[in-house]
Amino acid sequence: MILNLIAQTTMLAQSRFKAMDDSIARAISAEENHKLEAIERLVEATRNFDFLDPKRQLTILAPNNKAFKRLPIQTIDYLVDPAHQSELDDLIAYHTIEGKYTKNGIKHMIQKGEGKAKFNTLAGFPVFAVLDKEGEIVFIDRNNRRMKMIEANYLKGAHPVHIIDGVILPHSAVY
Question: Contact, 87 vs 175, CB < 8 A?
Answer without folding.
Answer: yes
